[in-house]
Write a structure and sequence with these properties.
The chain has 436 residues and is an alpha+beta fold. It has two domains: 98 residues, OB fold (Dihydrolipoamide Acetyltransferase, E2P), CATH 2.40.50; 296 residues, BirA Bifunctional Protein, domain 2 (2-Layer Sandwich), CATH 3.30.930. The chain is 28% helix and 28% strand. The protein contains eleven helices and 18 strands. It has an eight-stranded mixed beta sheet with strand order 6-10-11-18-17-16-13-12. A five-stranded mixed β-barrel has the order 1-2-3-5-4. The chain has a three-stranded antiparallel beta sheet with strand order 7-9-8, with no helix packed on it. Helix 3 crosses helix 5 and helix 5 runs antiparallel to helix 6. The longest helix is centred in the middle third of the chain and has 24 residues.
Length: 436
């Protein structure tokens, strides 16, 4: 049986401490953000995940503060009283204080950001970095965004699934795979759920997944990681336009939710004006050919059928502000599972959602005819024997289907105006980082 004195009890979070509690006893728990010693009394500013509270320590309780360090974990019980400081309407007059865990000094960084640290140094001590409210808010927002996405997709009758991350062959071909020793067999970390999510719609009709994936690209940019989170959908009996409409609905609903968040009290990580500016009635759609013509007019000199370079995409981002779709890409630029456009077999029923030069979503209609799919695999120089498990599913009565994948981390870059994707990933993995 647990002794009552050994229990850790918190009656309120910081955000709940207000004038309605004046005269009442409360218990809070958190870390010491600041110690203001003015002689006969000490003001302790205690922060938790929800906010900050001022407490007043006097008399015999001052002894408990000996050698107390900033960022130590403490619990405090006391009475709410009207505060005298301009920054706090109320404060807690301490009746009981317990130091749970002392923080070493000096800390590797200052979470209060009095001394600025580099991004690399912050990631080295990420758990401590998150005590900075602005940083922590990024990940609270990320949680809210995934909640909104789930809600939209579930309202459209999508079923959430989890597909394997250890796979026997490449999801999309190519060499950018991490290999692993799977007992006595060579296996790989999944690049995407593409093949599995297509197979699942055979019976489940509409599926989605929010999960991490892995690409062994030796990229040293502010937008690439070796491990990233993707939001993927696949749906039977929907075409490319249908799933593009759904992508638009998901994104605009996310923006609506963020606007409400700002109106309800704001967020330290969002700019109200920029979010409101991004929220337009719809997202513009431009064909690949239209974009090539525009870029050539701007002096980029792109051959029809070429992929767009970073500089070309940056130029498009200057012309088309905010989010925009690029549709009807040349078929040769797309993976083997993408369906050709009816009547124009050199084009594909595909689209990318862009924000400036950042590709956020790639999607389109898929092949459902096993013979055409096999031929497309061959045409792209891949070995169809590596995809036999996948191809045989298409012989069991595969419905026409379409889908897309959304890079959650890149979307968070846009929403928080982060200049580096590592800002919005808790523990980023890239060519230079495997720890912490």
């Amino acid at each position: 049986m647990i002794d009552e004195k050994d229990r850790i009890h918190r009656s309120h979070y910081a955000y709940q401490i207000d004038t309605s509690l004046v005269g009442k006893m409360v218990s809070i728990a958190g870390w010491v953000e600041e110690i203001r010693d003015i002689g006969k009394l000490v003001f302790l500013l205690i922060r938790d995940v929800s906010g900050i509270v001022q407490t007043v320590v006097t008399g015999k309780h001052l002894e408990a503060l000996k050698d107390l360090t900033r960022h130590s974990i403490i619990t405090i019980s006391g009475t709410i009283q009207i505060g005298k400081a301009k920054d706090f309407d109320v404060e807690i007059k301490v009746d009981q204080i317990e130091i749970i865990s002392r923080a070493i000094q000096p800390l590797p960084l200052d979470p209060a950001n009095r001394i600025e640290s580099s991004l690399d140094k912050r990631i080295d001590s990420r758990a401590l970095d998150l005590r900075n409210p602005r940083i922590c808010e990024i990940f609270r927002l990320k949680s809210s965004v995934t909640h909104v996405v789930r809600s939209v997709l579930q309202s459209e009758r999508f079923i959430e699934v989890l597909t394997p991350k250890i796979i026997g062959s490449a999801s999309e071909g190519g060499a950018n795979l991490f290999s692993v020793n799977y007992f006595d067999t060579k296996a790989f970390l999944a690049q995407s759920p593409q093949l599995y999510k297509e197979q699942l719609i055979l019976a489940m009709d509409r599926v989605f997944e929010i999960a991490p994936y892995f690409r062994a690209e030796k990229s040293h940019t502010v937008r690439h990681l070796s491990e990233f989170v993707s939001i993927d959908i696949e749906a039977a009996f929907l075409d490319s336009k249908d799933v593009m409409d759904l992508a638009e609905k998901v994104l605009l609903t996310v923006l609506d939710r963020l606007i409400v968040t700002l109106e309800e009290g704001g967020s330290v990580s969002l700019n109200k004006e920029s979010i409101a500016e991004l929220r337009k009635p719809s997202i513009e759609r431009y064909s690949y050919k239209h974009c090539v013509d525009i870029l050539n007019h701007e002096g980029e000199q792109i051959e029809y059928g070429d992929d767009f370079s970073d500089s070309s995409l940056r130029k498009l981002g200057q012309i088309y502000k905010g989010f925009y779709f690029i549709t009807e890409w040349p078929l040769k630029l797309k993976p083997f599972y993408i369906h050709e456009k009816m009547g124009e077999p050199f084009l594909s029923e595909s689209f990318d959602l862009q924000f400036g030069y950042l590709e956020l979503i790639s999607g389109g209609r898929r092949h459902h005819d096993s013979r055409k799919l096999r031929q497309r695999i061959i045409d792209q120089g891949l070995d169809p024997s590596r995809f036999e498990d996948h191809l045989r599913v298409f012989e069991w009565g595969m419905p026409p289907h379409s889908g897309w994948g959304l890079g959650l981390d890149r979307l968070m870059m846009v929403l928080t105006n982060a200049q580096n994707i590592r800002e919005v990933v808790l523990y980023p993995r890239d060519t230079q980082r495997l720890h912490p």
